[in-house]
Design goal:
The chain is an all-alpha fold and 263 residues long. The chain has a single domain, classed as MetI-like fold (Orthogonal Bundle), CATH 1.10.3720. It has eleven helices and no strands. The longest helix has 34 residues. InterPro entries: MetI-like, MetI-like_sf. It comes from Microterricola viridarii. It is found in: Cell membrane. This is ABC transmembrane type-1 domain-containing protein.
Length: 263
């Protein structure tokens, strides 16, 4: 059993962690400070709120993010339980094939995605962004969920089956209530990827009323220059939902990311 670290060791670890965090905090502080330049805090943020379709774009991003989270969560939990706790032929081969998606950049799939969206007539449809985004996120979340579910003792699942639960019932009644940390990881990660996506909405949602929040900074750029303080003010507002969601689920997220990374 590991011994409890002394007060000195904990202080050294805290100082080291703080020093490591500073380089990551600097861009955020610089972004907020830059948003106060130029015409000032009130004028910059007022311009973002009044001169752009921020509310409509935020609603579009929220719809896409919720759709992505729903698909990613359902696919990840079902597949994670199957690969982590069930036995079937070709399990390792299928799991390895899915993990190939981790090394495929989205930009490499643009041409086939464009052909598929055009064939199904999905231009200016949320599904044209939601489905491709979800498929690129699932390999990573599945890797974490499979490792997390594999760590759940078999005795717990056997007890549920003795009480009459089917495999699906065991997943719903036993595994999912025990999987709050990995659920937080899936929600935060899927939301982060969907909310920050820029290229797919720009390509497939060509109607201006369907553009997402990541296009708001473009309203302050032009051919011969850009209004940087207003761009940074827009970026601050875009980042707020991600920060709020992470802070709300931080406790579960940290437990889930550490438990899912260890097998």
């Amino acid at each position: 059993m590991l011994e409890r670290p002394t007060v000195g060791v904990r202080w050294v670890a805290q100082v080291a962690a703080t020093l490591l965090a500073i380089p990551f905090l600097f861009p955020l502080v610089a972004m907020v400070a830059k948003s106060f330049d130029g015409a000032g805090f009130v004028a910059n943020y007022s311009a973002v709120l009044t001169q752009t379709p921020l509310l409509r774009s935020t609603l579009n991003s929220a719809v896409i993010s919720l759709g992505v989270i729903a698909i990613v969560y359902v696919c990840t939990m079902l597949a994670g339980f199957a690969f982590g706790k069930m036995k079937f032929r070709g399990k390792k081969l299928v799991f390895s094939a899915i993990l190939v998606g981790l090394v495929l950049p989205t930009i490499a799939l643009i041409v086939p995605l464009f052909i598929m969206v055009d064939s199904f007539g999905l231009f200016n449809n949320y599904l044209a962004v939601i489905v491709p985004l979800a498929t690129t996120i699932v390999p990573f979340t599945l890797l974490l969920a499979r490792n997390y579910m594999a760590s759940i003792p078999d005795e717990v699942l056997e007890a549920a089956q003795i009480d009459g639960c089917s495999s699906f019932g065991t997943l719903i009644r036993v595994v999912i209530p025990l999987a709050k940390p990995i659920t937080a990881v899936i929600i935060v990660w899927a939301f982060l990827q969907a909310w920050n996506e820029f290229f797919l909405p720009l390509l497939f949602l060509q109607d201006e009323s369907m553009q997402t929040v990541t296009t708001i900074p473009l309203y302050f750029t032009s051919t011969y220059g850009s209004d940087q303080p207003k761009i940074f003010a827009a970026l601050v507002l875009i980042c707020l939902p991600v920060v709020v969601l992470y802070l709300a689920l931080q406790r579960f997220f940290e437990r889930g990311i550490s438990a899912g990374a260890i097998k």
